Amino acid sequence: MICQECGKKPATLHFTKIVNGDKNEIHICESCAREKGEGIPGSSNGFSIHSLLSGLLDFERTGQGAKQETVRCEDCGLTYAQFSKIGRFGCSSCYKSFENKLDPLFKRVHGNTVHVGKIPKRSGGIIQTRREIERLRREMATRIDNEEFEAAAQLRDRIRELERRVEGL
Amino acid sequence: MSKRRFAEHPLSDWMKGKGPESEIVISSRIRVARNLRTYPFPMLATNQQSLEVMNRLTGVASQGKLSGIGQFDIYKLSELTELERRVLVEKHLISPNLAGESRNGALVLNEEESVSIMINEEDHLRIQCLYPGFQIREAWQLASRIDDIFEAEADYAFDERRGFLTSCPTNVGTGIRASVMMHLPALVLTQQINRILSAVAQVGLAVRGIYGEGSESTGNLFQISNQITLGQSETEIIDNLYSVALQIIEHEKAARKRLVAENPIRIEDRVNRSYGVLSYAAIMDSKEAAQRLSDIRLGIDLGMINGVSTQAMNELLVMTQPGFLQQVFNEALSPEARDIRRAELIRNQISQHNNHGGVSQ
Question: Which terms under GO biological process does the entry name (chain A) (predicted)?
Fold first, then answer.
């Protein structure tokens, strides 16, 4: 296959971009990719995952008319439009500023929207305790369903103790 | 200026160790991305801010907080030559991004070069741990320990719902990228590779060629890594990668057995032919070198070649990269000159080993 940009060199990079069912195939050679700034994995101007991501981020706009309101991160000043163009957040507050737009994006990229992994030890103590409380509540509910009231009562006491600790923090 | 240690030796010390399944898995790597809560991500940080980030994070190393892990050197990227940076990229110790685009970028590197900590790359902090062979769990344990050390000293950007916050939405959550580098010549030869790789992609893992262009692999080397970082725990991510890699290892082993059983003379011809070419060729481009070196590595694994070690192959893989080549010969080389020097380097390396054996017949 020959590069669709220069029509000379063999195409070594093949992308398929599907946005809302519109399929778009791109076949280009390495030097055209460099020039176009699409880049190559591992090369210094790296084909960025970001240019692919911006395709994902844009889907929203193509969906429902074009009602463009400017959402801006109050801390770093990045707008949502800029974010969807470069595919990178400007600071940790962007996650809050763009909060209600992120679920569909994370769903697409990760298939999930909520973190379940490691929690920082120092700042995360309270989070860990809250997770433990949730877990114990679920366990308590099952015990009650199974009519294991003694075990459920023990769990209830443990939950109370943890809740007091969280409030104390 | 004297040569820096990392530029002198093509093979990091950690690569000299032999890990489990090292005939197929060359290395295991974990990368952890973290950011400081009070600073904008490197892309938007001012010069002053990124300087502060660099000082705070390199400070953790310079104050000896990492001494339980090993002995570390700190390099500011601005103090390295372009060639030195290129060598670091070729040894996979820093990313092309840190080498080329970072502002106030820094590298904290241990003596064995098994831990490389990048500062002010796309994220403020990227901890990378490398292990020889198939030791992805061990790599994560070490990376997590280092992560804890930094966390004790710096306020991480962390959100209860989203996890560790990263510059790129593809890293948010755990912030970890786990990967194994595999040598899969028999799966390529028997044309099973595409089928396997597309199956791998369906379980949320990514595959890419190494030292190749795009997804094309040279030297039959493939890197398999997790894509999902949010909604799975670190252990799930690593277990998933582990079990998929384990299956690929089994497939590769079976394919090797079949190759030898079905047509031993053909595989022997391929291995010895490459051995001959590398022993005598005067011009060698990087793609051919990678392919021939892969054949020899396979020959070593199958017991067809003695005397040359897998370690020597790993060494040549790095040494024949453009940056390292110029470092070895201490001069800037045109692509044509590189091909000649590369051939020379390989001939020397092989004849050195040849004294103790060579092709077994």
Answer: stress response to cadmium ion; stress response to copper ion
- Residues in chain B closer than 8 A to A118 (CB atoms): 144, 147, 163-164, 174, 233-234
Confidence (pLDDT) at B3: 62
Q: What is the pLDDT of residues A60-112, one digit of tens each?
A: 444 444 445 688 998 999 999 999 889 999 999 999 999 989 999 999 999 99
Cβ contact (<8 Å) for B233 and A92?
A: no
Q: What angle do CA B252, B254, B257 make, to 5 degrees?
A: 110
ipTM for the predicted complex comes to 0.85
Amino acid identity of B83? L
CB contact under 8 A, B152 and A122: yes
Dump the DSSP string for A128-146: HHHHHHHHHHHHHHHHHHT
- How many Å apart are CA B306 and CA B301, to the nearest integer? 10
B214 annotated ligand-binding residue: no
Q: pLDDT confidence of A49, banded at 50, 70, 90?
A: low
Angle at A42 between CA A39 and CA A43, to 5 degrees: 50
According to the annotation, is B213 in a ligand binding site? Answer: yes
